[in-house]
TrEMBL record:
Keywords, in A-Z order: Membrane, Transmembrane, Transmembrane helix
Source organism, top-level taxon: Bacteria
UniProt keyword Transmembrane, yes or no: yes
Membrane-crossing segments per the record: 12-31, 43-63, 70-89
Protein name as annotated: Pilus assembly protein
Source organism (scientific name): Luteimonas chenhongjianii
Amino acid sequence: MNRWKASATHLALSVVVIGGIAISAFLLWYPYGVHRVAGLDRILLVMLGIDLTAGPLLTLIVYKRGKPSLRFDITVITLCQIAFLGYGLHTLWQGRPVFLVGTPETFTLVFANEIDADDLAQASRPEWRRLSWTGPQLVGTRMPDDPVARREVIEAFMAGGAGIERSPAYYRPYADIAPQLLQVATSTPQAVAPRDGKPVDRNDSSIAGQVPVVSRRGEGLMQLDALGMPLRTIGTSSP
């Protein structure tokens, strides 16, 4: 085997491993098409760029049939690639979406590294006191009715706090918020995004309307069904 074949073999194995990880993360952590506002493409591109370049390229450089230190060199390259992959997986894990929070006007996608452990412990339900491993939990939230509590939330946010969307203490069942979202949902799509290779049908009868969906990495529109449940995320139109 020459160096080109060795590098190609290494590249193929890397594609299989990293591709499997990417597909698994996509299917498990990004329902409703929220990858469109989660910056997933940028994270995966970094992982692919480092791992698919470092391993196969180094193999191409050092591989020489019959070289006495070849086994040692390949072992070091493999360990380096595993370390790069481990760092990428840690970054992907820390930035996974854990809550899809509906407010009376919009959705906010919240990531694991945006939730403080002390805030998480104050959630009213046990399932909201942990960071999901299997995709974002659908919850609702809104400003407190009590003026004093409302002022405290605003003051905490102005002082650099997480905001009500990232404060599990204020989470409530999504069903409490869904009717309000339906009231403000726009009925005419403002953007068209690919869906299985085809444009989203503007006249799809299952779509009752759409509201903004945002995260700290992007924004889009969430389409709702007649009960106010999220269907899918589409991209926003260019200004």
